[in-house]
Amino acid sequence: MSSGEEDILQIRGLVVHNYVLLEPDGGVILLDGGFLGNALGRIEKTLKIHDRSLKEDVRAILLTHGHIDHTLNIAALKRATGAPVFAPKADAAHISGTHSYQGLSRICGLMESFGRMVLKFEPPEIDDWYEPGENLDFWGGLKVIALPGHTSGHCGLFSEKQNAFFTADSFANFYHRAEMPPPWFNVDGKEARRSIVKAAALCDDETRVFPNHCHSGGPDAHRLDLITLAAKLSK
């Protein structure tokens, strides 16, 4: 399903959604890899509708963080596309499944371990580890924004040229009410709150916001939800 933006396609899943960025010269950039329910098939079908090919046009796969609902299909996507995979360096342990969860986030660790076993998770090979502040040379330039707390290296990607902000799992608003991720999914709740406030501060009145756990409304609605949540958390 399209997000309503000509150059940004939102692939909606049951719980988590991922994005496809269309470059003017025919290239394709994938943001995260979807989760359950034949995510690869959904991506391939969407690209076909827009006269793009999974095998021929995908130039890069960008991971925002290392939770399994974002990484499950990355190894398969890499094989299908031959494209390099980029990921936040601080999330290397999350991606490999070796992160040592502490406190309430141990629940997330147990869920991740179970999911890896049941779903026969294949850790993806990462071609390039990126750092906060870097500018990735895709889609006219994507700046890496550190938004830690959900995971150690959780990042957003900001396009100044397109005024588009991919906020990953910083917040969720499935029911038109923005919330933080449940506390057991965050490695550091206080840091996650600060990241939400930081993300909102980077938005102006025209910024298009694209979260991964959201309702089907447009990016303007997501921006307003983010700003409302940040204001609530700042009190």
Second rung of CATH, namely the architecture:
4-Layer Sandwich
Number of E strands: 12
Number of domains: 1
Widest β-sheet, arrangement of strands: 1-2-3-4-5-6-7
Q: Report the end-to-end length measured between terminal Cα atoms.
A: 37 Å
Global outline: globular
**How can the largest sheet be summarized?**
7 strands, mixed
Rg on CA atoms, Å: 16 Å
What fraction strand?
15-25%
Query: What fold name stands as the CATH topology?
Result: Metallo-beta-lactamase, Chain A
Low-confidence stretches: none
The average pLDDT is 93
The number of distinct helices, counting runs of at least 4 residues, comes to: 7
Helix content range: 25-40%
Look at the structure and name the CATH superfamily: Ribonuclease Z/Hydroxyacylglutathione hydrolase-like
CATH class: Alpha Beta
SSE order in H/E notation? EEEEHEHHEHHEEEEEHEH
Please identify the structural class as seen in this structure: alpha/beta
